[in-house]
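User: structure tokens for this one?
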Amino acid sequence: MRHHLAYASPVVIDARMKPGYPEELIVREDIARLVDARWDEYFPEGIKPR
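Assistant:
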């Protein structure tokens, strides 16, 4: 088990948006409906959406 990172509690992650980050992507409603309707075709082994 060499080369594995180990952290001690507490671990703090700064997930705030920062000035250099790109804008958040927002999916169009028509695309979301299409993907939801065809989800089982895209992932036949049962991966669950959001």
